[in-house]
Design goal:
The protein is mainly alpha-helical. The protein has one domain. The chain contains four helices and no strands.
Length: 100
């Protein structure tokens, strides 16, 4: 995961990254659960509607692994359905699930 995330650092030949680097659009897309698609909104900021959709898959205060995976996949499916420019890489999709 580190090797892939380092590619999000805009510095040439970087060997490290800052926590805001993976948030760059079309890199990992790890934050779809709490942000709107860049196509529609100011994507770097928290989006209550996106988070409410994610949260709708949780049954209680503690989120189990199944709920986390289901809510993550649901947000990706929503993005694919409504965003004509949705272009996640397979690697980005898999690494996102690996975060869960």
């Amino acid at each position: 995961m580190h090797q892939f995330t380092v590619t999000a650092n805009p510095t040439w030949h970087a060997t490290t990254y800052f926590l805001d680097h993976p948030g760059r659009h079309n890199i990992l897309e790890h934050d779809a659960s709490c942000r709107a698609d860049a196509y529609f909104d100011d994507w770097p900021v928290f989006n209550q509607t996106a988070f409410d959709e994610t949260r709708s898959y949780w049954k209680g205060l503690v989120v189990d692994l199944d709920e986390a995976v289901i809510s993550r996949l649901a947000r990706l499916e929503t993005s694919e359905a409504i965003n004509p420019n949705h272009t996640p890489s397979e690697l980005g999709r898999q690494s996102g699930l690996g975060e869960v």
